[in-house]
Amino acid sequence: MNNLKKLIIYNEISGKGNASKVCYNLLLPNIQQNIIQIYPCDEYSFINQSHMIRNDFKKMLNKNNYDVIIILGGDGTVHSLINNLVELDIINKPICHIPCGTGNGLSKSVYYSKFKDYYEPFNIKNVINKICEYETCKVNIFKIKSIGENNYIEKYGFLSLTWGIFSEIDIKTEWMRRIGSFRNTLGAIWELIRKQSYHGTISYKNEDDTWTTITDNFYYFTASNVSHVCEDVFISPDIKLDDGYFHLGILRGNNVSRYTILKLLLSFSSGTCDKYLEVIHTTHFKIKIDAGIVVLDGEQIVPDYKEFEVEMSDKQITIF
């Protein structure tokens, strides 16, 4: 690892806002050699706002004078980076995600896949300690595009697409991001009281290339690409980072009780939520919603988009 040239990117607004402190106080003392550049970024700036900042960021990524990227931030920061790497056709650059966000699903999933048989807890210090081992793995990415008449987006994701109770919790507690993952507990209590379902249609491709369509009222829908969509939301131990399948979890119908929803929410700590859900494995699905929030890799897709097609890509990212 010491011989590799390193580009370090940190996002100061992620999570509790401590990415720069983690970078300079914890990370740099462990990897002092061959640091090409340290770049402070704001994913909202270089993706959504300033054309000049966006172009400067792409120029930096495209210099090709580095071997690996170490990124400090949340899953939204990683999402922005990956979409830039795909656009620049340099998706093969190995990435290390230091978990400085609120969710940190990618970092936790990678850590779990490598070290689940060990007893070291998942935290920033232990993730940094493992960097120098440079043990790489592959993670599938997927392509999402809108299929509505008036709007069009096309992006790549690596973590999940959620709709229903989980995405409501994720986005509506965003203003509490400084208190960390406890915000999800507060949001879960509120959503359990609300018990809100959303009408829509989900279609998915079966192994024989036929399609199955479900139209119903949905309380919960998550298409997971990794085992943990947040560091404290464990979907399933059976999800592999590179198996090429979405793990769809669905809770629907008109007779779902609050007790069932409560058991589902509590099961996220142990990876046993499948017992309360319809579980589907597929490589390709479509979703059309009448209302509700859709979240891609921890970031809300703007409300104007109501219909999406999502398919596994043949591209992968290399994580260490």
Structural commentary:
The mean pLDDT is 91. By secondary structure, the protein is an alpha+beta fold. It is 28% helix and 33% strand. The strands form three sheets. Strands 5, 6, 7, 8, 9, 12, 13, 14, 15, 16 and 17 form an eleven-stranded antiparallel β-sheet that branches. A four-stranded parallel β-sheet has the order 2-1-3-4, sandwiched between helices. The radius of gyration is 19 Å and the shape is globular. α2 packs across α3 and α7 crosses α8.
What is the element layout, followed by pairings?
Layout: E1 6-11, H1 19-27, E2 35-41, H2 43-49, H3 51-61, E3 68-73, H4 75-87, E4 95-99, H5 105-115, H6 124-131, E5 137-146, E6 154-157, E7 160-164, H7 165-172, H8 182-194, E8 198-205, E9 211-224, E10 228-230, E11 233-234, E12 246-252, H9 258-267, E13 278-282, E14 284-289, E15 294-296, E16 299-300, E17 307-319
Parallel strand pairs: 1-2, 1-3, 3-4
Antiparallel strand pairs: 5-6, 5-17, 7-9, 7-15, 8-9, 8-14, 9-12, 10-11, 12-13, 14-17, 15-16
